[in-house]
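ok so i was messing around last nite and threw this chain in just to see what happens. nothing serious, just curious
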Amino acid sequence: MPEQAVRARTTTTLPRIRVGDTGDEAYVHPAAAPLAAREWNRAAVADLLDHLGIPSFAVPGRSDHGTVVAVADEHRTRVLEGLGQWLARSPGHLTWLQESPVRTPRPRPSTDLRAWQPPADAVGVQVSWYQTDPGGHLLLGHEYGCAVEFWTRQGDRLLAPRANRGPWSVAASGQDVWGAARLFSRLVSAHTAPELAPPLATRPEFLVPGVEDIDFPVDAVYTWVDGNDPAWQARKAAAKGEVYHEESASDARFLSRDELRYSIRSLHLFAPWIRNVYVVTDDQVPAWMRTDVPGFQVVSHREIFRDPADLPTFNSHSIESQLHHIDGLAEHFLYFNDDMFIGRPVTPHAFFTPVGTARYFPSPNRIPQGPVAPTDTPVDAACKNNRALLLERFGRVITQPMEHIPYALRRSAMAEAEAAFPEAWARTAASRFRAMTDLSPTSSFALYYAALTGRAQPGSLRFAYVRLSSGDLAERLEKLLDGRNHDSFCLNDTYSTADDLEAQQELLDGFLGAYFPTPSPCEHTGEERAPWPTPSR
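result:
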């Protein structure tokens, strides 16, 4: 096969390095990301099949990570010969597909002769070219590969050799149509960057919407503050308000450890279905952040607070009470503190059901009994206030706070809660520092309000919480990085001071840079980057 026929898609021009303890070789890509690796593998296989003149069509496979293409079984020999010749020049990995495998086969390097010994019941082959970032931290392996299935001709139908998320057969003489990329992976939405997930040639039988499809937009919202900004420090010093608990104005609440940069990277890498990202600040913008990227917007407190007299505020509860006033915000959105991260590819189904019901994640901890007491922390006081109002309105008692997992919120539920409890809501909005009269609008109250009005339900996902003041912080971070097996994690601290930050920063810089090595499109990098998904309403 002539090299020039597929040069645009092959990995031969990229350097390779060994990654991890397994000794696997991966191609180094400066913009390594899961969907980019997925599309690279798919496009490479598609180019090969086009060069061979073999018709193929995309199939909605059962995995969200990789892709599946179908070819008629009579082309099996030519496909395998072509793959063999190509992989001899551009080494990769492969596994043989079986209808009902006893266990998931381990991918083998294409240079291993054992890789080319298919089982007797092989119904296809999955091919991948591993990718990694220039530092070799993020290994994008075989799960992002492209599976080539051999479909059997039976009369005027082509029959699938194994289950997929669509029909078992298609018309053998049917014409290809273009299908939106979101039909082939739940990691993709209508708002995902098209270069990461272009439309695919498929068959009309696969264009029918599925009962598990999520077709509504989901936005992400952050609140962020730079406590080292002299102008902000002056506003804080001049603000009038009584601080009732040392945690309320702890420096740790306002320290910027650059977590926001990496949390947004986590969305870019692992939640590419997000439509728009909003960062709510007190007229602050991080030096590294671009504000001219479609689908990304910095929002001032002044734009969302209904009562300007409530500003300036230094109370996260106050700010959170106004988030649903963001202009253009989707009905369904995720609220992040900047110390929350997505840890591996997740679908929107982790946070919402296909009919739009939000999922919330109760903590195993318990809200202390009794009324608010002077010894309560701000968190406990707010939870008690939440409990009292919800009990009065719904006759139900809440007993658990929420985990530090991105909060899946319904904009309409927050608006209704504000209208239903105007005095408590306004009192929270007007508290310049955390007060014992606060509600916790996003992390508890709005979630339980949505649940009690039929718009939220409990969920579960794999989650880790790391307190930065832990004596074994280095070991905890190393375990997270080595495993990469949590859907979400939080790097939280309440009582750290600026002196603590100096000791922690080196650990955090190394960990965050290794876990999320690929810059997001909203970062100033000195290089042109693919745009954030184009916003729509």
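not much to say yet. The two ends are 46 Å apart (CA to CA).
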